[in-house]
Amino acid sequence: MYCNTHKFLLENNILNNSQFEFRAKHSTSHAHDALTDYLYEEIDTGKICILVSLDLSKAFDKVHRQILVYNMKYWYNMDSSWVEDFLNI
Q1: Which of 34, 48, 69, 74 shows the smallest number of beta carbons within 10 Å?
Q2: Distance (Å, rounded) from C-alpha 4 to C-alpha 13?
Q3: How far is CA 53 from the centre of its chain?
C-alpha cells in the first residue's frame, strides 16, 4: 500500500518541494544542506535569522483519525480503506 500511496502523491504533485522525508534523493543531509544554504543566503543579504527547531515525533499521536481519512478521500480522492484498517477506525 505504501508504494501505491507514494506513487499517487508523486504523480499528482502533492508533496511540497521542501518535503525531504520519504522522497528519493531527498535525504536528511539534503534537508540540512538546503536549510544551511538558505540561512547563509539570508545572512549575506544582511538579514537576521532565527531557527526554531521542534521535535514532532509524537505529532501523529494527536492527529484526528476521522479527519485524516476524510481529507484523503475528499481532498485527494485517495482510497483510504487501508488507513482505516491500519488505524482500526
Answers
A1: 48
A2: 14
A3: 16
Based on the structure, what is the number of domains in the chain?
2
- Residue 52 and residue 49: Cα distance in Å, rounded? 10
Please answer whether residues 22 and 6 qualify as being in contact, where contact means their C-beta atoms are separated by less than 8 angstroms. Answer: yes
**Same domain, yes or no: 59 and 49:** no
Q: Any residues with CB less than 8 A from the CB of 68 and at least 6 apart, and which? A: 83, 87
Per-residue pLDDT of the chain (89 residues; tens, 9 = 90+): 567 777 888 888 887 877 777 677 788 888 889 999 999 999 999 999 998 887 767 776 778 888 888 988 888 888 888 778 877 76
C-alpha triplet 47, 16, 76: angle, nearest 5°:
145
